[in-house]
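Reviewers of the previous submission asked for a worked example of the structure-prediction workflow described in the proposal, so we include one complete record here. The input consisted solely of the amino acid sequence. No template or homolog information was supplied to the procedure at any stage.
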Amino acid sequence: MKRTVKIILFCVVVVACAALAIHKLALLRPASHVADDDDDAGPAPQVATVISVQTGTLKLATLHQYVHGYGTIVPAPATTGQPSADAQLAPPSAGVVAKVSVVEGQHVEKGDVIAELNSGSMTAAFAEQEVERQQQLYAQQNTSQRNLQNAQAQLALLRVTAPLSGTVTRLNVKAGGAVDVNTVVAEVMDLTRLAVRADIPAAEAAAVNAGEEVQVLTQTPVTATIAFVSPGVDASNGTVSLWASLPPDSSLRPGQFVTLQITTGVHTNCLAAPVESVVADENGQSTVGVVHGDEADQIAVQTGFRDNGWVEIDGAGLKAGDTVVTVGAYGLPDKTKIQVVNPSTDETPATNVNSSTAQ
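From that input alone, the workflow returned the following structure tokens.
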């Protein structure tokens, strides 16, 4: 009897364990079934990529083409009928400086005495007295003109005089110093006659001619006039030199380094795009991304003058007022979905244009 009861209890436990296992499998099956259904439904649909960009607007504008160069302010060189605006003064003979009559920064007139010399037994003071004596004798007809001229020539050998009116910009001697004919005693410069000497790329020199205006781009721009364009090219750097005359009141200083800008072309009423909107595709073709709704269409363009943040363009169907992609334009595929996120302040380049290079 006890053996029968044990067998019955054992069977009950086995049945209970089997029922529990079946219940757990039933709980797990719906998840597996859902996964199978998802696999049968295929891959999830792709969401279109939207690129955030900034935009600008095409407009009609007047654009310029310029040649740029770098130069230095110098005294104006000699021209037909006018000497150089600068002179370095050397004594006409060797001697000892007896007197210096000027200081640096002093204005002198042509013929003013800069310094006097003593040479051997002859002094400048004695030579001057002899000239005065000969002049008196000549006035009384008691000496010849030749004697007077000889006295004047002797005095001239003992004086250093200014060959032009200007400012003493450098003084290199003091009284008591020895000098010879190679000594630069002083430098006199006419500061109202200055010029700018500059170099420009040889490839652009053909568009630059004497008589044209050039802007010297200092803090306050100064207009100069081109006086000379060299016919030769400096083989060491591929440039052509020129010089341009400055107005007397330019306020520029000799030795000052400056940038030049020469206008060589003007295009009026041309279609212009913000310069950052014009990019090259993988083939090197210039394009702009024209905004239509939420897409950007790539339009091939030909470019012209570039001027102060704008570039001249010509492309099929383009017109003033069209919206184009600026920030984000590079590498933007055709027909791309876009989202315009322009900043609150207008950062589109200004209309007033004043600098460019040709493309």
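The domain at 66-74+192-265 is CATH 2.40.30.170 (Elongation Factor Tu (Ef-tu); domain 3). We consider this example representative of the routine output the project will generate in years two and three.
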